[in-house]
Amino acid sequence: METEVLYRKIIHIDMDAFYASVEQLDNPELRGKPLAVGGSEIRGVVSAASYEARKYGVRSAMSGVQAKRNCPDLIFVRPRFDRYKEISKHIRKIFYEYTDLVEPLSLDEAYLDVTQNKKGNPSATLIAQEIRKRIFNELGLTASAGISVNKFVAKIASDYNKPNGQKTVNPEEVEDFLEKLDIKKFYGVGKVTTEKMYQLGIFTGKDLKSKSREYLEEHFSKSGLHYYNIVRGIHNSAVKPNRIAKSVAAEHTFNENLTSEIFMEEKLQRIAEELERRLKKYTITGKTITLKIKYSDFTQQTRSKTLPYFISDKGLLFETAKELLYQEKMKESVRLLGISLNNLNTEVKKTVVVQLKFEF
Q1: Worst-scoring range by mean pLDDT, 1-5, 226-230, 318-322?
Q2: Are 223 and 208 in contact (CB under 8 A)?
Q3: 13, 179, 280, 333: which could form a disulfide with 206 (CB 3.0–4.6 Å)?
Q4: CA 162 and chain centroid, separation
Q5: Considering the chain, what percentage of its residues have pLDDT values greater than 70?
Q6: pLDDT at 77 over 80
Q7: How far apart are CA 184 and CA 139, in angstroms?
Q8: Closest Cα partner for 300 from 264, 337, 260?
Q9: Are residues 192 and 254 in the same domain?
């Protein structure tokens, strides 16, 4: 007697160059031109880049100076987060017409579990096509999608035919798909880990799959088991509709670098006030306060302290951040300060997912 194999139907929707695309949508003069949202050619960091700018190597998290160097004709615009949130809300409304199992990752991407969906459509591929078409017709923006048996593969697949495309990886294709991928394409394998894997002769999924679980745990500690599983298509994390925040943060990049801790104290007080507003909005408290410092040479440092009780008060946030500020001497002038709170009082809610056999 054959054993029936059970699979989920997971879609990962990722908007194409979301912030930049919204700016080009609202201002026709920016269409077809290299555009960077955030920062400037003198200060700040690029939050998003249009595809026209990406051709010149402009990427998010790049300094404005480097971005302008790469693309002399680059146009900088200030971000309008209220507008991005407005459009994101509309996009999510579309998602919820298909399923209640929606896990937003950010304003511009989300996982959807459509194993059982409100449309009664057995094809996850057709659902993804329909959602992308609706986003374009209703908002004038393009989205890409990945469709597969779990979140990990769907996430990778959504990047496969970008922009304005989608890719389905059927159950029987998962392992072959992963074997052929460069290891740097694996979601969650960062730059440092990629370099380490390259040094160990692991360049593709196939190379990773050839390594034993013991070998991977020896070289990558607890992450070894994770790498062993994902290259075999094993990733059982359910789509969590009520995704719980692991941290809440507020930060600010300054127009001029700060060299005195006295001036930094004043900035931290305002950041603490903003963080308190965000925490109280969602009734969140936490125990671990982290001070983030970005220096003028773009190096970054964090200092943390865990309290024996939960807090959300701006006074306590500021006093703890101030203590961390003076923990050691600054090595350079400072261009950004931030305060985050984690070790939160939120509880993870378990979601029961029914798995069925299906056609993609």
Answers
A1: 1-5
A2: no
A3: 179
A4: 17
A5: 92
A6: yes
A7: 33
A8: 337
A9: no
**DSSP E strand boundaries for the chain:** 10-15, 35-37, 48-49, 75-77, 102-106, 109-113, 143-148, 166-168, 247-258, 286-295, 300-311, 334-344
User: Is position 193 within any domain?
Assistant: yes
**Residue recorded with tokens 């773009």:** 298
Mean pLDDT value across residues 62-68: 89
Exposure letters 258-289 (e unless 16+ CB within 10 A, then b): beeeeebeebbeebbebbbeebeeeebbbbbb
Long-range pairs, 266-270, Cβ under 8 A, ≥24: 267/337, 268/318, 268/321, 268/322, 268/325, 268/337, 268/339, 269/314, 269/318
Tell whether 241 is covered by a domain.
no
**Structural domain count, the chain:** 2
265 and 328 inside one domain: yes
Q: Which residue range forms the structural domain that includes residue 195?
A: 173-230
Residues 223, 258 within the same domain: no
Whether 331 and 303 share a structural domain: yes
How many angstroms from the chain centroid is the CA of residue 355? 27
Q: Is 14 annotated as a binding residue?
A: yes
Q: Does 109 participate in catalysis according to the annotation? A: yes
Of the residues 109, 175, 332, 347, only one is catalytic, namely 109
Q: Is 176 annotated as a binding residue?
A: no
